[in-house]
Fold:
Amino acid sequence: MSILVTGGAGYIGSHTCIELLESDYDLVVLDNLSNSSVESIRRVENITGKSIKFYKADLLNRNEVEQVFIENTIEAVIHFAGLKAVGESVHKPLQYYQNNISGTIILCETMEKYGVYNMVFSSSATVYGLQQQVPLSEELPIKATNPYGRTKLMIEEILRDLYNSNNSWSIALLRYFNPVGAHPSGLIGEDPNGIPNNLIPFISQVAVGKLSCLNIFGNDYDTKDGTGIRDYIHVVDLAYGHIKALEKVLSSSGVDAYNLGTGKGYSVLEMIRSFEKASGRNIPYEIVGRRTGDIAISYADPSKAIAELKWIAKKGIKEMCEDSWRWQLHNPNGYKTETKVLRVT
Ligand code: NAD
Ligand code: UD1
Structure:
């Protein structure tokens, strides 16, 4: 029996593959490599000393998806595959609805056909939209402010309908807060295409000298220092959350949403300071206007995941920044960088 990981070559997927292999699961990865490189899979194999069965396949191609289920006995699916850039989704909504929603429907139809009812789905804290209160807990009504967020919201609802239609389904909807950091080996990490949209990849590229200056999007929010506050979560903690969610879906049925966050919020300026300490480099910045669609404060109430999944985030911002920096320093060109160290002891 194997676990199918869609989008397993991507940032969070590749880190989750390590945790799965280290927990002795057999893995099949399906990825169309539209936002990743098969090099991440090779490095996961090097880190763990275990192999992964990889399919370069597109969720929108029903035959390719079905082939994976014909050739393997799949016990559960961890479904990461999707497009994730908020700004791009505003300009290309149909591409986002098609890829994320149609891709998920084809996946679920194939799962049903082959009698596979266990799924862990990558949702996002973006489904909370703009709320009046923090911390954000799972009972809050969900709403989205951009097409990317709406794909996550709609998929959550599709998956709830699916369970209502057939109680054999067992689904965990994982609402990630702000994933950052990298595997401590420095061999895998986030490899954004072009200029990064998110804070930590941007800071990393300033620190390594690829970009000259960080723009801080507003210092007039009602927060401790005026800059935006987020719940940054180390990607290794996040990856481990998938192991705990998988254990839950394999041992019960139902559909449940879980926040995966630390419950702590840090400002942009605090993250800059922490990154400067971790890297020993100065991060020049400039205050500019607010970014459209940004909110002042977002952090999780993680108590449901703590109680029901027996999962808690353990790593703090020091490790997040140190591990992001190690990855950036050793891989200035992401997965295009040649690795000198292939195995970590
Ligand atoms: P990523 O882009 O690194 O990984 C997604 C992977 O899916 C990529 O390898 C891409 O090639 C693949 N993919 C996309 N469309 C596909 C398709 N049609 N068929 C097959 N493969 C396809 O992104 P990530 O940061 O690892 O995010 C993983 C998931 O978590 C996504 O669904 C994302 O929306 C969600 N998420 C991410 C964040 C974040 O900040 N990174 C936050 C909340 C939620
Ligand atoms: C963004 C997305 C969100 C998505 C998440 C994935 C937007 C509006 N939101 O969230 O939907 O789920 O990424 O991780 O794109 N910042 C700067 N300068 C920068 C970059 C960011 O000051 O160059 C600030 C932002 O204003 C924010 C904080 O840093 O206060 C974090 O930003 P970011 O990493 O982009 O994450 P989110 O905005 O939380």
